[in-house]
Fold each of these.
Amino acid sequence: MDRRGFLKTSLVVGGTALTCNKARAQEQHDPEEFVGILVDTTRCIGCRACEVACGETWDMHVPDVLNDGALEAHRNTSENQFTVVNKFETEKGDVFVKKQCMHCYQAACATACPTEAMKQMKGGPVVWRGNKCIGCRFCMVSCPFDMPKFEYNDWNPKLQKCTMCFERLEEGQKPACVSACPTDALMFGSRLKNLEIARHRIYSYPDKYVHHIYGEHEVGGTGYIYLSAVPFDQIGFRTDLGKRPYPEYTKEFLYAVPMILFGVPAFLLGINALADAGRSDPESEFTLEFDVDKEGARNE
Amino acid sequence: MNKDVAITDSFGNFFSFLIQELKPRGPWLTPFNIISIPVILTGVGILVYRFIHGLGSVTNLSQETPWGLWMGFDVVTGVALAGGAYVITFVVYVMGVDKYHGIVRATVLNGLLAYSFYGAALLFDIGRPWNAPNPYIGNSFGFSSVLFLICWHFLLYMIAEFVEFSPVIAEWLHLEKAKRFLKKLTLGTVILGITLSILHQSGLGALFLMAKPKVHPLWWSEFIPILFFVSSIYAGLAMIIVEGTVSHRVFSRLIPEKHHDHFDDIVFGLAKGAAITMFVYYFFKALLFIHDGQWDLIVDGWGLWYLVEVIGFVLIPALMFAFGFKHRSLRIIKIAAVMALIGIVLNRMNVSVICYNWYADVHYIPTWQEFVVTFMVIFSELWVFRWFVTRMPVFSADH
C-alpha cells in the first residue's frame, strides 16, 4: 500500500468511526452537541457593547453606556436587561464580568417548571415560552444563579432571562452580545471546543489565569464558561453551588412517587384487612370479598 | 307531609330549598362578622388592584424573594395544618378505631375546605392564572417537576375529600339511596387520599430541594420531604384538638350532649398520638443536626432562631403532650396543641420565606395587603365552614 492509499483508508476508517461515535454520542447527550459561550474576563474592557446589543436585539432597555455611570455599583440582570457587566476591584486591577443566564447543561429551572414553559432547546439554550407559563415562579426558586426575572408590575407578567439568542442561532447567526464584543472576550461555539480553548489558554499562560474554569463542573456544567485572573469568589461568583446537577436533588423524590402511589394503597388495604375494620361499621366500608368469605364461614 | 319526597320530587322545590339554605341565619352583628366582613371586602379590593397593576403593586415580592406570605403561609403552611383529615381517616377507616368516628366529618370538611381555599389562593399568587389549566391539559406536562406533581395531587385530593364528605351532603338533601352508595366509596377514597397526602405533604418539602444554596443550612436537608411528612401528622392532630375545642364552644348547640363528654376522651388519644410523632420528628431533627455536624451554625442569631423552633415549639410541646396525657390535664394538652401549631407555622415559614435568602442585605417583609389577603382567605374559609356545619349534619352523632 502506498502512502496515499494508506492516508485514504485511514481517513475513511477514521471518518466512519467518528460518525459511529457521533450516533452513540447523541444517545448519551454528549456535550459536543451543546453550544455555549466562553467569557474570558481578562480580555473584557468593560465597554458594555454587549449590553447595548442585547437591549437593541430584544427591544429592551438600551443603556447609555457613556453617561450612566452604571459600573460604579454591582448590578443584577433585571426584567428589562438580560445581561449586565460589573466592575470588580481586585489585586490584579479592575476586572469586568458579564452576567447573564448560565444556560445550565441540566437546567434546574426547566426541571422545576410544571408546564415545560421553561425549556432546554436542542443544543443547550434554555428559553421561556409564554403560552405555557402559569407564573408560579418555581423556576426562580430553583435557579442556583437567580436568573429568571419576573415582571412584577405587569398584569400579564413574563419571565425574562437571556435566551442565548435562540432565534438568531437558528438562523445561523451568533448571539448578539458575542457579535458585538470588540475584544473577543466572548466566544461562541460548541461547549467542548470552548473548554479546550479555555484549557489551552490556562496552559499557555499559567501565571495569568487561575487554574479553574467556572462552569466546567459547577452545577453539572453550564453553557456559559468563564476564565479569570483572580479567584472567582472575588468577582461575584458563588463558589458554594457544588458540582451536582440540580435536577438530581429532586430525582430520588420523584422516583419514589410511583412506588408510594402503588405501594401505600396495597399496604393500607393489608392493614385494613388485618384490622378487620369491616366488622365494626359494615355500612361505611367497602367490603372485601375476603371478608364476605369469612363472614360466611362464621355463620356456618 | 313527607319532606324527602317533596324535595326530591321536582327541580322547583329543590331550588327553593337551596335558596332557603343559602340564606343567612342567626344574628348578624357577631364579633366574628364585624371583624371578618371588612377584611374580606378589603381583600377583594386588593385583589382587583393586583390583577390590574401586577403582583408588585400589592406585595413586597422581589426577584430575590419570589415566594412570600401567600405561597409560604396559605399554601405550604396551610396544607400542613390540613393534615388532620388523612390522619383521622386512616385511624377510623383503615385501622377501624371507632372512638374517633365522631370527629371524622368535621375534620374531613376542614380538609376539603382548606384545600379548596388554598388552591384558590394559589390563583392570586401565580402571575398568569389564566394558564392554570396547563398542568392538567394538553401537551404541557412537566413530568420532572415537583410542582407538577403537587398540582395534580391538589386536584385529586380535593375530589377524594369531596367524595369522603359527600354522604353528609346526601343526608342533607335526604337522598338515602345516594348516601348508601357514596358510603361504599369511602374506604377506596380514604386510601387514595392517604396516599396522595403522603406524597404532597412531602412534596411541599421537595419544592425546596433545588433551593439548596438559598435556604439556611439549618433548615435545608436532603430529607426535607420526610420531615414535612412526619410533621404534618402532628400538625393535623394538633389542629383537630384546637379546631375541635373552638367548635365545641362556638357550635355548642349543634353538638349532641354525649359527644361533648366523648370529645375529652378523643383529645387524650390525639395528644398521645401527637406526643409520639413529635418525638419522632424531634429525633429526626436532632439526627440530621448531629450527622451534618452543624454545631458551628448554632452560635449566631439564626442558630438561636433554630433552637427556638426545635426546642421551644417541638420538644417542649411534645413533653407537654406526654405530661398532659399521663396526668389527664386537658389544659396542658390544649396549650401544647397551640404551641405545636405555632411550631409548624414557624417551620414552614422558615423554610419557605424567613430563612430563604437568609444572607441577603434587604429581607422580605410582607406588605399589609399581603396580610389582609391572607386573612381574607382564612375568614372566607371559616364563613363557608360555618355555613356547612349549620346546614348539614356535620357534628351529629348518628353516623
Amino acid sequence: MVLDVLNKGFNAVTSSFSEFQGSGLIFILFLISIIFIAFGKREKNIKDMFVKYPVYVLIVFFAPIWYVYIYYFSDYEILYRILWLLPIGVTVCYVLIEVIYKLPEKFRTVGFVAAILLLVISGEYTYSNEYFSLAENEYHIPQIVVDICDETEVEGREIRIAVPDELLSYVRQYTNAIWLPYGRETLMGLGSGDSLLRSLLSEPVIDTRAVVEELRHYETPYLIVRDDTKFTESLADYDYVYVTSYDNYDMYMDNDTYYGIDDIDYR
Amino acid sequence: MSIIKIILICIIIYSAAYILGRGLFPALKDKGTGLSLAGGLMVIFASFYVVTLPAVFLQDDENGMNVVMWVYSVLISICLIVSIVLTIMRIVRRKDKIFVAKPMLDTKETIYLALFMGIVLFQLFKAAFYAYADGDDAYYIAVAQALGSGQNSLYVHDPYTGEARGLMTRYALAPFSAWVAYFARLFSVNAATVAHIGMPLSLIPITYVIYNAVGEKLFPDNRTKKYMFLCLIAVFVMFSHYSYNSAEVFLLTRSRQGKEALANIIVPMLFFEILDISGEEEWKISNENLIMIILTCISSALTSVFGNVLVLIMLFFNFVYSFVRKAKWKERIKAAVPAVVNLFVLFLYAIK
C-alpha cells in the first residue's frame, strides 16, 4: 500500500515536472541563473528571493504530501501550477542583464541581442501554436457556430441542438439560449458525461431510428451533422426535415416539435 | 458598437484600478511606476469576491446575479469616491502631487522602452485579432455567457448543457467568470467578446506593470537596465511555449480565465510584495503591505480554488523567512494573518 502510494505519486509528480519543463533548455538557463545569483550576488534579499525561494518551491512540489493526494484523488493534472510559483522569467532575465553589464560598454548592445537570441532559441514561439488563428468575428468563435445559433435561436425560450464534436465547445460560449444534449465532459469521457446520443452520432453509419428516438428523448429538435454523414434511413422518414446547410454542415429540424414561433424558415 | 464598448470596459478597468490604487495605497506609486494599477486591481478583484461569495451560497435563483451587480457597483463606487477624496486631500496638504516629474529619458532608455512597448503592443494586437481555441473556455465563458445574458442563479446550471444540476462548489468558490459576466451585463455586450478581447487588453498590461515594479526593485538606480530587463521579459513571454502549461503561455492564450490571472497577476504581485518586504534593513510588514497582501490573497480565491493553495505556499515561505530574518513576533504574526483568508476558502471547499 505505502509502496503503491509512493510509486504512483512519484511517477505523477515527475511526469508533471517533465511536461512542464518541456525541452528543458529554459530550466537549464534557470538553474544556471540561480547558481550565478547564489555565488555572484551579495545582496541578501536578492539571494533569498532568487535562490532560497525557488529551492523551497521545488521542495514543496516534490514533497510526498502530494503523493497521498494523487493516490486518493487521482487528480494530478493541476500539480504543475505549483511550478508557476518559480520566478523563471524574472530570474533568467535578471541574470542576463547582469551578465550583459559585465561586458565592456561597447559590447552591451551585442550582448543584449545575444540574450534575446538565447531566449528565442531556448523557448518556443507561442503564436506558432496550431490553436491560434485569425479571429473570424468579435466573439472569437467560428462563424459557422454563430450562424447556426442565430438560425436556431427562438426568442423567449431555450432550444436544444445537437452538433458535431468540433462545434460543441463553442455553442454555449456564444449564446445561453441554445442548450445541448451533452457537454464537453462527454467528449473528454469524464464522470457523468456518458451519452448514448453521442455514441450513436459517432458511428460511421448512423442508426436513424435510434438517433431520432434519443433526440426526442432529450427534446432536441435540431440536428446538425457533417454533410458527408451517412444514415441507415432518411431523416425525413422520421419527420426530421432538412432546413439548410452551412459550409460542410447540414441542419435538420424536428417537424413534430412546438417551437413557439410560426415562421421557421424552410429552404 | 461592441468594440467601442470593449474599449470603454478597458478604460473603466484601468481608470478604476488606478484611482483605487492611487487613493487607497499612496506608497505604491513610489514602489513602481504604474503599480497603483495592480494595487487597484486587487481591490477590484477582492471586493467582487467578498460580494459574490455570499450570493453564491444564498442561492437566490431569482436575484443572485442582479444583487451582485448592484452591491458590487455600489461598493466599487464608494471605494472610488473615498479614493478620490483621499487623493485630493493629500494633494491639498501637499503630501502628494498630481504629476510627479521624472528625469527625461536618454536615447538608450527611449530605444529600449520603445522596443518593449512595441513587443507588448504586438501581443495585445494578437490577443485582440487572433482567436485561441481552448477547451476550458467551453466551461468558463459559457458561465460568463449565462450570467452575462440574464441568468441570475450562480453556478447551479451546467454550462455545457444549460440544465440545472446543483451548486458546482469548485467553480462557485472561484467565480472569476462572474466577474467577466459583470462587464458583459453592465454594457450589454456578448460575454464571449468581453472574455476574448476585453480581458486580455485589460489584464496583460497589468502583468507587465508588476514586472516593471520588480525591475525597479532589481535595478533601482539604472533605468536602462530596467527597460532592457522588460524587453527580455516580453521576449521570454512570447517564446514561453517550451511548455503548454507555462504561466506565460496562459498570459498570451487564456487571459479570460481565472487561472491566467492567478499565474500572471496574483503570483507575481505576491512575489513583488515579499521581495519588497525582504528589501528592508529590518524585516517588517507595513500596514499598507499587509492590506495589499490580504487583498491579493482574497483575489487569489476569486481566480481559482487551487490559487488558495499556491498563495498559502508563498505565505508559508514568507512566514518562515521572517524567522530567518529574525523579525519581531508582531511581524511574524502579520506574515501569518493573510493565510486565514485562504484557509477559510479551503475549509468551505472541504465542507461543501
